[in-house]
Amino acid sequence: MSETSAPVRRDISEKTLHPVNGILVLVGAFAAVALGVLLFVLGILCVESRPGAPGVVMIVASVVLVIAAMFLFAGIKVVRPNEAIVLTLFGKYYGTVRESGCFFVNPFCAVAGHGRVSLKLTTLKNEKQKVNDAQGNPILIGANVVWRIVDPTKAVFNVDNYQEFISIQTDSTIRNIARLYPYDIVDDNEDDEVVEKTLRSSSQEIACNMRDELQKRVTEAGIIIEEVKITDLAYSEEIAAAMLQRQQATAIIAARAKIVDGAVGMVKMALDKLSEDEIVVLDDERKAAMVSNLLVVLCSGKDTQPVVNSGSIY
Questions:
Q1: In this structure, are residues 43 and 77 in contact, taking their beta carbons and an 8 Å threshold?
Q2: Looking at the predicted structure, is the pLDDT value of residue 188 above 60?
Q3: What is the mean pLDDT of residues 51-63?
Q4: Are 117 and 84 in contact (CB under 8 A)?
Q5: In this structure, how many other beta carbons lie within 10 angstroms of the beta carbon of residue 10?
Q6: Residue 20 neighbours by CB distance under 10 Å
Q7: Distance between CA 9 and CA 123 in Å, rounded?
Q8: Could you report the per-residue pLDDT of 100-132, keeping only the tens digit for each?
Q9: Residues 142, 230: contact at Cβ < 8 Å?
Q10: How far apart are CA 119 and CA 122, in angstroms?
Q11: Model pLDDT, residue 13
Q12: How far is CA 242 from the centre of its chain?
């Protein structure tokens, strides 16, 4: 029975190169081209005037100088600020140039990956995606991710395309973290000592959790996540209207509860004040009628019409 072993991925450590100044090499390459052209012209004139070895030597020397200049030109690499280039030599990792400027490297070196690697801060705008929250409600959530590359060697060799890689990992992370929390608290329970975290009320803390989780996923690509910020958060269209009605109902109930609490306190204060000052003595039946009238007046949603009692209350 044969066993198939998975290939072992080799972790390549970055080797920073400090190549020679490319400006001096560039000047030397132009000088070699100029000298080669001059020797070629002199060699042609020498062969025409007096056939022999000197003219042929000058022509051969001119060709050698031009070929050497071409190799020098091939080794010139220009690195802009906040950029890096990863070089390979015959399929093997050669080194990484982080310094900005014009440099000369081995002419046979090739730039690995998809070209130059930017070390600048980059913002990834994750478009809104539909996710089910912890309560199963469909929501729309989107975020912005600020990231940068700190190890261009890993970014080139450990992943095929680091920009596509971080985009896919961001989608997956936001989706997985959003499923762990409800959009909002449906049932208000004042007796609970621990308030449940929600996407709406604890968005900053949940965004930090997203950043930590995303950082674990992209570390092998040499990427640092600076910030994750939730930019879009809403119920999905199919339940948005129903959830809005629920929020309105909750607000109305809370407001009515406040009104009732205040009205009961005012009625109690009025009865106590009447009893203390002995303005009028009311039996239980009259107190119940007075309480009913006061509650109607205080809890009514519309202005009440005053009624003047011209007779005896008894």
A1: no
A2: no
A3: 82
A4: yes
A5: 8
A6: 11
A7: 30
A8: 999 999 999 999 988 889 999 999 998 888 888
A9: yes
A10: 9
A11: 85
A12: 31
